[in-house]
Amino acid sequence: MLDGQKLGPFQIEKELGSGAMGTVYRARFEHDGKPITVALKVVALGLLGNKSAMDRFHREAAILKQLKHPHIVRLIATPSPNKPSKTPFIAMEYIEGESLDHVLARRGKLGWEEVVDYAKQLCSALQYAHEKGIIHRDLKPSNLMVTTDGKLKLTDFGIAKDTDVTALTGANSTIGTAAYMSPEQCRGEKDLSNKSDLYSLGIVLFELLTGRKPFVAENTVDMFMKHVQEPPPRPSKFVSDIPVWLDNLIMFLLEKDKATRPMDAATVGRMLSDIEFKMQNQQSAGVELANAKKKDRLSGLQKIDDEDLDAARSLKAGKAGKKKKKKSVPLLERQWVRAVPAVVVGIGLIVGAVWFFSPPGQQAMADAVAKSADNESKIAAAEAYLAKYASQADEITATVKKTLRETRGKKIEALLDKRYFSSLFDKSKPPDNTDEPTYLAAMSALDAEQSGDLAIAQKQWVGIKGRETEIRDVHGEGWGWLADERLKLHRDVDDRIKKMREELKDMEINEKPWKFDPTEPESIAKLAIRLGSSGGVPLLSDDPDRNRLKHVVDLPKARRLFAEIVKLTEKKADQRGWFLLGIRERGAKFDPKADDGKARIELVRKQLDAIRTEWDRVKESSDAGAEKRDIRNRLRELIDGYGDESDAAIKKSIDESKALLSEVK
Fold this sequence. Notes:
Shape: globular
CATH class of the domain at 98-281: Mainly Alpha
Radius of gyration: 36 Å
Oligomer: single chain
CATH architecture of the domain at 98-281: Orthogonal Bundle
Distance between the termini: 82 Å
Number of helices: 23
CATH superfamily of the domain at 98-281: Transferase(Phosphotransferase) domain 1
Structural class: alpha+beta
Strand content: 5-15%
CATH topology of the domain at 98-281: Transferase(Phosphotransferase), domain 1
Helix content: 40-55%
Number of strands: 11
């Protein structure tokens, strides 16, 4: 017990709870003369010599440093590396409230509206963590704190997995609370994904709604087997008044096969918002029936009863009378036989009418979405489909929702580009029925991208993505799609550079022909890389015996080439990735006037002289194949890089380079 003691700058006040890894205390410290309350997690004394446990403890702190989200507990401080503490601790945001397991213990279960509200907040936190490669792995009510004003906070990342680093948990081991673990966790699978957290989310929602867990077992092994093999019961089996869509969503989350669960937490968040919307606008058929007059409801039944009674009386009278012998009539002359063709035709007409006037089925409506020729008709077809099938937790519905999100996103992307690049619009004023804060954040992101401040742009897109489920304007979740796409383009810049470097290296090793195309961003970028962009990193080995000639390094021209990419792509939405690459590599402080070209004459001459010297050294050698290849590649680099120059001295050097290239065999 540390109550009343001091740990570093923290004065411990009381114990809040304890577990296997340690104890959490409420503590205070002074910051700028103001007292601040924190939750202080102190490692258990018995684990101080346990390397694995200490690694996990430090990993939790490292993970929390990456997470800054309104629904994730915030890291305040850890011991300074310069002043290590004998008692390791993590100081976190103190949450004035209680955990959901305490809420359940007090109330038994929660109403569906409250559960949906908490679940939306949790989905926002999970999506944020998952996008950073962090899987929580221990979702349960005790790790979900609720503040006094109803704000949910996700806590305890003690066994979270950062997919960007080596996991601390070995293969074929299980971590987490057994009742909430996914089937893949129970099987000890090594590579867990966001889908594991989504399964645990389903367990949590089930328990919050029903007051019980879907599976009950006497030991951990039996619980594992239930998660892996036993179908879960529906929540509606225990609580009858929850929306059918919420009932279906929880079963969707509890799929045994992770591939059939929802795509991500953001998808679940949107489905939860849809459930709220449907329940708010749903008209109850039961209310209409209750308001109908009783005599109107019974009149039809009374009529049927009277007719049945008359028929019964006739039947009784017929049986009581004397049977008369009927005269035999040939089969083809009997009335019922003559009536058969007319009956068949009538039935055919009825079936055809029913088929013609019946509304299209699920697959037909989904096909109409896929076949729509333009964005407006595609959106209308998707909205019509979802008005009827939105509650379906199947692949067809998921595809339609994805299509609607993407189409709305492309529509808002076109709208933003039009308003941003046209002088006819006031960029500071959003169009009608558009969420103003989201619109202004997007415009700020575009400004940052145009100026080359990509870090600010990424921050704005992340903010829009985090608010996706809260945005209620004509574009709906299209904002989230657009943010996803822009963030992906930002992440892809380095991959594009890496891929082009590999292709250029292969081109040089195998001496593949290459033709510069001034209209293609990729061609311009490759030429810029060949001229030494990004620090002029050599494409071949630095081994002096294998790569004696260095690449020409002409950063001013390389930056000018990247500026050409910016100019070529800045107003083309389908080439936004190339624009971001160009703006980043060009540099925010690019000045075209700084490249006067005078130094280039000497640069080209020195490079050609170095190539000639190397050729004189190896041209008589029969085993200098690699060196000769190097010479040819450096000559091609000069020819490709400076063949467009108008200076007479450079043109002369390029002509000499071409002549020498024909000589080097």
